[in-house]
Each structure stands twice: as C-alpha cells, then as structure tokens.
Amino acid sequence: MCVESDVCEIEGCSSSDELPTLSGSMSPGLKSNPDLPACKPGQKFRAALLRCRTPDLAAAGILSIGNVLNYMDRYTVAGVLVDIQRYYNVSDSKAGLLQTVFICSFMVAAPIFGYLGDRFNRKVILSCGIFFWSIVTLLSSFISREYYWLLVLSRGLVGIGESSYSSISPTIIGDLFTNNSRAMMLSVFYLAIPLGSGLGYILGSGAKDVAKDWHWALRVSPVLGITVGALILLFVREPERGSAEQMGGRRTRTSWVCDMNALVKNRSYVFSSLASAAVSFATGAFGIWIPAYLTRAQVVQRTADPCTKEVCSSADTFIFGAITCVTGLLGVLIGAAATRLSRQKTERADPLVCAVSMLGSAIFICLIFVVAKKSIVGAYVCIFIGETLLFVNWAITADILMFVVIPTRRATAIAFQSFTTHLLGDAGSPYLIGLISDSLQTTYASSTLWQFLSLGYALMLCPFIIVLGGMFFLATALFFLDDKEKADKQANQLARTPSSVRV
After folding, report:
1. Residue 361: is its pLDDT beyond 90?
2. Could you write out the DSSP letters of every residue in 112-128?
3. Residue 23: pLDDT band with limits 50, 70, 90
4. Fewest beta carbons less than 10 Å away: which of 79, 117, 131, 266?
5. What is the pTM of this model?
6. Residues 142-184: tens digit of each pLDDT
7. What 3-state class would DSSP assign to 9?
8. What span, in angstroms and rounded, lies between the C-alpha atoms of 79 and 391?
9. Helix %, strand %, coil % of the chain (to 5)
10. Can you name the residues that pair with 27 across neighbouring β-strands?
11. Whose CA is closest to 398, among 155, 191, 88, 142?
C-alpha cells in the first residue's frame, strides 16, 4: 500500500496491478485505498522519502558496494603489474600466474559456498569471506622480493574469500526483489563488476603514485572491505529463500545431487554458462594485459621510454581504469534499454541482446591490435566501444539464470556457473596469454617491437573466443522459453509440497 506513517494515501499512485520498470517487463504495482485521505504536500514528500529508504533497497546498496570492493581488490594487482614484474623480476607468464591462481582457487571454492549458501545463513558467510580476503590482501603487501611464491599463494587465498561473496550475494537480491525490480537491482549489482574493476586500476596506480611505493596499492581496499563486512552483518537481513516469489514458508529442500542433475539438463543454463565463460576468458586476459600492451605500444611509437625506474608510469593503467568504469555504466544502461525494447518484439530478447552485443564487441576488439601500433588514441576508442558492447550482457546473463532456475537452487546454480566460467575462462587466459607471449618473444628477446607484437598476437585469441560466446547465446535463445516455463511449473509444485518432503 502506498501510504505514509500519518495514514494517508499518496496521490498519483497507480491502482493497477502492474507497473512498468527499467527492463520493460511488468511488476506488481502499488494499490490505492479509497478509505484513506489524500496526503498533504508535506506528507507526500515524507512518505515518498520513507518509501525510497526501504530496508531492501539499503541491503541491495550495501551488497552492491561490497561487489565493487570485491572487484576493486581483484584488479588492484593488475594496476601495478608492471611494478610487480620489476620488483620480483618475473616474466609475463609468471606475472599472469597471479591472476590464474586467484581464479583457480575462486572457482574451486564456488561450488562449496553455493552448497552452503542454499542451506545456511548467507550474510554471515558473506561477512566472513570479506573479512578473510581483506586481511590476507593486507598481509600480502609486506611480502619481500625473495618470496614471490608467497605472493602467488596469497592471491589464491584471496580468491577463496571473494568466492563466497560472488556465489551468494546475488541470491539475496533475488530473494529481496522479483520480476522487473529484480532485474533492475541485479543490473546495479553487476554494474559493480566493471566499476570495481576500473576503480581497482585507478586505486592501484593512484596509491602507488601518492606513496611512491606499489605496496600501498594493496593496503587501501582491505580497510574498506572490513567496513562493508560489518555493514552487511548489521544492516542486511537474511530473506527467506523464494520469499519474493511467494515460496518462502512452504518451500521444499532438494538434495544437492538433484540440484546438479536438474542444472545439467537445463539447456539455457548450460549454454549461457558457456557464453559467460567466453566473456570471462576475454575480460580476464584484457584486465591483466591491456595496460601493459598499451605501455609497450607507446615505447614502439617512441612517445614513451622503457621503464627503468623503481616506480613505473601509471598513465595507461589510470586511463584504462577510467574507461572500464565508464563503459561498465554504459554497457549496463544499454543492456537494460535494449532488453526493454526487444521484449516488445520477442520473449527471447535477453539471450538475443547478449549474442548481438558479443558479436559486435569482437569486431572492435580485433581493431585494437590493428591500430595500436600507429595510434594510441585509436586503440583507446576501440577499447571503449568493444568493452561497452562486452559489458552489455553481464547483468542480463544473471537475469537469465533467475528466470530458468528455481529459487531454492539459485546459489548452487550461480556457484556452479561461476566454477564453469572461470574454469573455461579467466582461470587460464592470463597465464595462457603470457605463456604465448613469452614463447613468441624468444625469437627476438631484446627487441621492444617484438615484445609489443608478441603480446598483441597472443591477445588476438580473445576476439575468436568472444565470437564463440555469441554463438552460445544464440543457442540459449533457442531453449530459453521452454526452460523458463519448466522453472515456473516446478517452483509452483515445490510451493504446494509439504516442507518435510525431500526430493
């Protein structure tokens, strides 16, 4: 009911059953009550303010901020990668190993946290995960140059902590909201991925420049992480699983084997997970290597000198981080608008929008390696357009999962999807690109031109993987409506089944 604490009705509230929201589908509207008097102007303002400051919106905001910090910490290392290479005297492949070890531990832990997230208090698990990765990141900033293997190990431990957050937090939002409200909240939540990634580059390079020491790049995000972990414990409520879809009080708990069997047979879920793996492969490789590639490009163009100082220039890292923040915002907005318009034409809009955006992204990412040798500005333009199109699908992919998977197995579904996308995606891509680059460099090891070209040739693998991901999204579109209908029917059956029954 659209009312305020003085028991009056806000004028202008819809009396219809549904209201249009951001992505275009309909959500339950606010019903008016003819027995209540209309609010006065001051009362209407206070009532609208109270309605905007609902606990669920606050919880979604805190969770989104936590996701920003999650990805900020993940890419802070990428923001100072050149400095880490110089400090520890490691090759491209060993530098790429930092991200590979992080992602491997992340994906191995994801199914475990998915199982726990479907059965135990989720906000406690989230907070413990944030506290853990924050402390480990802080301690890793004190590792001396003789112990590079210890830095690699610390990134693996950080991956375990961050896995708890990424696997569970979207399911809380899924249970706080439904229909179009959920799509909008998930869009905000997944906007944190490019925003946090970009801020990670900016934070890493900025802290390094201010302190004149790259180690300080790893000492800022832990403080923020511990703060957000405390906010989650204090202010985020633990919603009943499926409560947003009226399943809460009568849900049936299915076994993990049953959950996995159902997910493997869910074709939309499988194909969208494979498509996400392609996105993960490209973003994982780009996130680590594009700043270094642009730095080498400027050396080849003779607009910059090779770094021989203790603290290397961070201009390219800073610019790339800013571009990632902006393109992330644009990608989410374009994805929401495109999905809203496309749903008026077809019910398969979600996977089709993802497919078109990925195929378009592949074209501009290819152009990066064509123009970078001659024009850094041209490379930045191609990066801007390619990243924007690539980021269109992130929030939409999460919404596809919510449509085709029942609420009581969503944490498991997200965790298993995370495992799959990282296993086939960015778990190996940073190391693989570095390994290919190292192999090519052996021919002319002392040539700065060849160092630039070898990394570019290695990165050319990414657009081909992106095209493959677009094909997987087209396959998702073929089965999307059938799988959505099956999920709706099964959810209704579980809601009618006594909670003591185990399937």
Report:
1. yes
2. HHHHHHTTS-HHHHHHH
3. very low
4. 131
5. 0.68
6. 888 888 888 889 988 988 888 887 778 777 877 777 656 766 7
7. strand
8. 20
9. 75, 0, 20
10. 19
11. 191
